[in-house]
């Protein structure tokens, strides 16, 4: 059965050796600041991911953004990227332009409603980069013990969203949690044919993600991609297929306020607000991903909804404005004292 969960243990050494070879396979030599420093000065201090948290009230629901860190991806992952347009996009976004690398933040969120604590995604593993992997420290900073978390909602099962689920000994970090994700995401992620959209070098990452969720198999609650599902009072799982066919966001609605946590609708805030048509090679359906992005950007701009995203610059809360034929991101202001 192609879609049945595999119990094969993850070969961590294979994952690590893939990471060592990845820059070459992907046609890039430097992999962000950390490796560049290591390459040039062997005595340089290793970098570690540092966390930050940011608290926000959406009506009566508390949202805590947790910084897991940041990493860099080769620019080649972005489909349709034109260097001149990319440089102009970076200028419009007040971001540094790098022709070879796209640097992105990695974030996750925790929602506190009356009586329920919901974690949304669990960050990236530090073998991806020494500058990610601070999710657990973020929880500590927020004063939340793992055993207090009632529900873990996964926007999707890519490696940079599941790291906190299992510790280095392969044990569940959230033993009593209800694991909520879309049925499509679970099924597709265990189906090798469905995962064939990823370059074959990503196979160890797929294995890693499977290993992170499998211990929770008996605690899973799979939701439909056909409609929105209210997973807690005022908290809705919203289907946003494209990046993966089971990719979902979370909409929070309380006392006439709302927040849309859109998962991986945007990977690069530098480029994709002005070029929402640029998808990535890690999108299951790049055309559908671009359509989902454009639709949600358009809707967020029209409704003036606050948005949040796993790869927006921390604190990763803001608004979308229309600008000519594309969009612009406005970081949320702080409204002190109401
Ligand atoms: Zn991601």
UniProtKB/TrEMBL annotation:
It comes from the Bacteria. One of its GO terms (molecular function) is hydrolase activity. InterPro entries: MBL_superfamily_lactonases (IPR051013), Metallo-B-lactamas (IPR001279), RibonucZ/Hydroxyglut_hydro (IPR036866), TAT_signal (IPR006311). Keywords: Hydrolase, Metal-binding, Zinc. SUPFAM superfamilies: Metallo-hydrolase/oxidoreductase. PANTHER family: QUORUM-QUENCHING LACTONASE YTNP-RELATED, QUORUM-QUENCHING LACTONASE YTNP-RELATED-RELATED. The keyword Ligase does not apply. Belongs to the metallo-beta-lactamase superfamily. This is Metallo-beta-lactamase domain-containing protein. The keyword Signal does not apply. Residues 105-311 form the Metallo-beta-lactamase domain. Pfam families: Lactamase_B (PF00753).
